[in-house]
C-alpha cells in the first residue's frame, strides 16, 4: 500500500490510509481521495481561523464584513461531500437515488377535465 501524500494533515493522512486499505481503488479514485483529503484540510484550516478570529472583520470604513475563510470553509465542505459521493465509498449504504424524485407537473390535468 502506498503512503499517504506528505502534505496532508495527520488526521487526513490517517483517513486516506484507512480508505486505501479498505477499498480497491483505481488510480483515478486515489486522485479523488487525495482531493477529498485536501478539501478536508483546507476546510479545517479555515475553521480554525474562524474560531480564533470570528466570522466578521471591520473594513477600512468600520463596516462589518464576512471573513473570506467563511467561503473557504463552505466551499471545502461542498467539495469534500461531492468527492465522497464520486468515490461512492459507502457501498453498504442505501441503494435508492440520492436525490428526491422529480415532481410531476399538474399542467394538463385541468385541460383534461
TrEMBL record:
Pfam families: Terminase_4. InterPro entries: Phage_term_ssu_P27. It comes from the Bacteria. Residues 91-113 are annotated as: Disordered. This is Phage terminase, small subunit. It comes from Planktotalea frisia. The lineage of its organism: Bacteria, Pseudomonadati, Pseudomonadota, Alphaproteobacteria, Rhodobacterales.
Amino acid at each position: 500500500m502506498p503512503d499517504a501524500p506528505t502534505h496532508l494533515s495527520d488526521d487526513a493522512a490517517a483517513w486516506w490510509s484507512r480508505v486505501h486499505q479498505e477499498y480497491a481503488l483505481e488510480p483515478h479514485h486515489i486522485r479523488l481521495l487525495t482531493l477529498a483529503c485536501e478539501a478536508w484540510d483546507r476546510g479545517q484550516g479555515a475553521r480554525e481561523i474562524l474560531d480564533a478570529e470570528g466570522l466578521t472583520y471591520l473594513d477600512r470604513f468600520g463596516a462589518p464584513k464576512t471573513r473570506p475563510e467563511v467561503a473557504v470553509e463552505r466551499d471545502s465542505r461542498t467539495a469534500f461531500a461531492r468527492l465522497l459521493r464520486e468515490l461512492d465509498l459507502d457501498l453498504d449504504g442505501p441503494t435508492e437515488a440520492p436525490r428526491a424524485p422529480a415532481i410531476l407537473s399538474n399542467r394538463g390535468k385541468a385541460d383534461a377535465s
